[in-house]
Amino acid sequence: MIARIDFKASEAVRAALSAIGRTEDLRFSPDNRLLVIAGYARKRLLVLRVDIEAGGPSVAVRDFMELTSGDMGEIHGLDFIDDRTLVVGNRDGHVVIFALPAEEPTGQSHEISAIRRVKGKGLCRLNSPGSLAVKAEPHGRVSLLVCNNYTHMVTRHVVNRWLGYRTTSNRRLLARGLDIPDGITLSHDGRWIAISSHGTQDVKLYRISPSLGPETEPAGVLTDAGYPHGVRFTADDRHILVADAGSRVVNVYAGDGGWSGRRAPVRSPEVIDEEAFLRGRANVEEGGPKGLDIDRSNNVVAITCEEQTLAFFSLASMIGSASASSSWPSL
């Protein structure tokens, strides 16, 4: 097991982490000052005020804020539109957009209301929305790419911030090759979408283009992913990290300037101790890491699951000596 970063936190912060229950995704804010954890079982968000320093690196969790709402259900997915605007995927309901409270986290609890609910329409009506990704578009528009877990597809919903985040279009985006899409991320160069496919135990990669549609074949596949959940590109897009909810590891994949073809992990470091893993081992698909994010400085990996609410690791120790030489022949 690779060494964790021993983060600084008060007893109040640690108590809040212990009380949040089952977790799913987590996400750093664009300014790297906040880390939000999805409290799936207790239907709430835990907002942490974090400080990260590259040297070491070191992490301090300064304080917390707990957010509840009648618009929060079984919270699965999270992503930021900007530093104070958060999109939430409720697997038992809809996708909801919230404005975070203006004040700093100081151990308080807030009841908040949605500024917009996104339901989809027709064949694009949301069904069991889980993980999601935000993509900025021109002219104040924002694309919300949403994993519909149990209808096995990703839908795209365009909202306009100048119209109070009103939805202006809905479409079915991807379906080919997906069986319970459980995590989603975009490459930083804007060329790729990576989607964890729980049922097929791999991660599918699709080239971003205007022609994307439900019948688009994946251009790349990350194999041997176990039961993949959280997925992230590193800042240089040379590696992809995939949390395996069915084991103790994060699988690391290396690119070669692109992500076409089939690739096996080049490294699979353990990130959860055996005792915690066995406590959460209700079945072969559970017990391991779920939510995964890389901080905006590209130095720290944050991981969450029910039995290990929050753990930090150095990205350098996670990647290790992983190299791009592991690529397999193209599909």
Describe the structure.
- There is one protein chain.
- The chain contains three helices and 25 strands.
- The chain is mainly beta.
- The protein has one domain (8-326): TolB, C-terminal domain (Neuraminidase), CATH 2.120.10.30.
- Strands 1, 2, 3, 4, 5 and 9 form a six-stranded mixed beta sheet that branches. A five-stranded mixed beta sheet has the order 15-16-17-18-22, with no helix packed on it. The protein has a four-stranded antiparallel beta sheet with strand order 6-7-8-10, with no helix packed on it.
- A hairpin with a 4-residue loop joins strand 4 (44-53) and strand 5 (58-68).
- The longest helix has 9 residues, at 11-19.
- It is globular.
- The two termini are 33 Å apart.
- The relative contact order is 0.13.
- Residues 323-331 have low confidence and may be disordered.
Largest sheet: 6 strands, mixed
Beta-strand portion reads over 45%
Fraction of residues in H or I helices:
under 10%
What ranges have pLDDT less than 50 throughout 5 or more consecutive residues?
A: 323-331
Name the CATH superfamily assignment: TolB, C-terminal domain
CATH topology-level name: Neuraminidase
Mean of pLDDT = 95
CATH class: Mainly Beta
End-to-end CA span: 33 Å
Instruction: Note the overall shape.
Output: globular
Per CATH, which architecture? Answer: 6 Propeller
Number of domains: 1
Number of strands: 25
Could you state the order of secondary-structure elements as H and E? Answer: EHEEEEEEEEEEEEEEEEEEEEEHEEEH
Gyration radius from CA atoms, angstroms: 18 Å
In DSSP terms, counting alpha (H) and pi (I) runs of 4 or more, how many helices?
A: 3
- Counting helices, strands and paired strands, the structural category is mainly beta
